[in-house]
Amino acid sequence: MSRTRLFFSKYGLDLLIVIAAVESAISTALRDDPGHPTGPVLWFEVFAVAAVILALLARRRFPFIAPAGTWLVSPALSFADGALIVDKAGLFVAGMGAAVLLGNLRRDTQARVGLAIVLSGAAIIVYNDSDHATGELIFTPVLFAIGWLVGFALRERTERIEAAEERATRAEREREAAARVAVAEERGRIARELHDVVAHAVSVMVLQVGAVRHRMPATDTEDRETLENVEQAGRMALAEMRRLLNAMRQDGEELELLPHPGLDNLDSLVDDVRAAGLPVRLQIRGEPFALPPGLDLSAYRILQEGLTNALKHARASQAEVDVQYSATELRLEVRDDGPGGPSTDAGLGHGLVGIRERVKIFGGDMTAGASRTGGFVLRARLPLEGGAR
Length: 389
Fold this sequence. Notes:
Blueprint: H1 2-29, H2 39-54, H3 65-80, H4 89-103, H5 108-128, H6 136-215, H7 221-248, H8 266-275, E1 280-285, H9 293-312, E2 319-325, E3 329-336, H10 352-361, E4 365-370, E5 376-383
Parallel strand pairs: 1-2
Antiparallel strand pairs: 2-3, 3-5, 4-5
Helix pairs in contact: 1-2, 1-4, 2-3, 3-4, 3-5, 4-6, 5-6, 6-7, 6-9, 6-10, 8-9, 9-10
């Protein structure tokens, strides 16, 4: 059934043109009106009538010439035989279809010329018919002009639909581009923070190696030299890391001198949100323990972003923060009772983009969306490699 619909949607009009051509050719060949032609003249008219209609099959390649040709050749044939055109149902259907196609042309100049051709052609055909009534000289051209207006109206509708589709496509591309920019910016921010964490750890290692080297006896030259090489390699790594961090910082972005926060600073974050006007209930489940610095920072940022969304975008009256420690994973949840949701990722803000990227780094997963009981809920799971220590 779908193949049949597909065939008729693609070739239905072509099939109708062929049927109209066959009907008109047969009707011409079987003419019995007084004074109808015979012999070669009759067969010329048969093929001429069929050709006039079949010319519309070329409408896709020649959108102006094909329908205009139908309306130019038909009046010319009426000069040779005034009754040839007026009594053919297939020719009437073809003429009306050609008028619609001319009205549907994208170029206004061609459409207006097509209207002139239709009006003049219809008037000539009616005039050359010896049996025409006076009113037909006006009624018939107006009838085909209505067909042209139908095509013109369809063109306007098609243009509006295409314009709307183009705007939607452009908006989708802009959203995708904005999302890519947001992801890139957030990944850069996460990388800078993690590089700071790594740089701090390397710095501590270098200081400890240097302290051990200075405590070693002067006679232990081989071990002292080995530790000195390790210390120099660490200092070189720190220097390269600082260059990388400077290159990753955006123009005008100042160096952060304060240590990066972690879940130990969660109470301060909750107090700040409460001071901003949103009551927050904090629940810690499980026994808290020291987390890897990068994961600790990301967990804090996830909760910070969740509370920021609840405060700014959700129009909530209260929020809940749930942190659950276990030996293998850390679970985070921020829930509010507001009717709104978080900022969309399609905008230039980071919103859920940052949360998603941070969770992805540590191989976790997250969900965010409206709760069945109302409000918005954000959940994130961060696995702990090797379990808690």
